[in-house]
Amino acid sequence: MEASLKLGRIWNIPVGLHTSWFLIFGLLTWSLASGYFPAEYPQLSTSAHWLMGLITSLLFFLSVLAHELGHAFLALRNKIPVRSITLFIFGGVAQIGEEPRSPGAEFRIAIAGPIVSLSLALLFYVLWILDSNIPLLAAPSNYLLRINLILGLFNMIPGFPLDGGRVLRAIIWKVSGNFQRSTRVASFTGQVIAFGFIGFGVFDIFSGQFFNGLWLVFIGWFLQNAAASTYAQTNMQQSLRGITVGQVMTRDCVKVPSLVSLNQLVEDQVLGSGQRCFFVADNGSFEGLLTLRDISAIPQQKWRFTTTRNAMVPINRLATVRPETDLLSALKLMDSNNIAQIPVVEDNELVGVLSREQIVHYMRTRSELGI
What we know:
Order of helices and strands: EEHHEEHHHHHEHEEHHEHEEH
Radius of gyration: 26 Å
Strand order of the largest sheet: 1-2-3-4
Number of strands: 10
Distance between the termini: 31 Å
Largest sheet: 4 strands, mixed
Number of domains: 2
């Protein structure tokens, strides 16, 4: 879930908005201003309803952000990196860099979000009591009390990847001592609950509550896909354990001189043989890595006058791995650096390259052989 609009950083974690956030923000504001607030507070003017709708929507998404920051804070406390926090159509997501290392860490990280939401519900309840005689303040307080309570309780539904599903996984993991089995049970439970949402949504649609039913179907679809993909990712991580980079990498590295023009390189190597990345080397000395992404970043009209040395990423800026590095660690390093290939170096000599394509091919071959 990549952010389309970057808002900044909190605790050095990038925070942003997905494109779908603008849709739900507009719909929520419109719903509050034209439906909920006029029904609850008919004595207020239309402009007041729209002002309350706008403020309430903003405070709701700040509440969602606080929920995700709760997860992020506990992840950082447990020395687990957090890549980003993104607000989108179904709320928010904190992208944790790796799986928790213990059931205790999993439980603490998962439960932190609902605790934040329930604490906010309590805070807005106190505010609602204090400002109950001031409609302009009481209306947002009352709504935010309800929505944070719903957010906290909804996330505790024991369906992966909801927080409740992660809590369930932590408990099963603690009891069984088996991370993969606990993930399988939590993911299965999550998919059952997801299909339950879809079923209720279809029922509502045929009962005349079209938009409410459609929303439930979308939530169920999202949860089902998330549960299935998370389980597939966990299976992949388990199958990669014990495998080293040297078992998967290719030693047939394409090396090109540093003074070759990009125009010639594209004609001879990219279009001619389908190569996608190159190691720039002179006299056997490895200088840097050049990929299609680096080439495409340069305007085509400049390719004739740009050499591979000018376009490459120098060796001192490259992430590298060793042949004995485990494959899962290498994949995480590639993810964190947002790269598709990584050089394999031994004793300061380039011995090969590892690409995502090779990892996928390796996994597919293992699956076909039933390994």
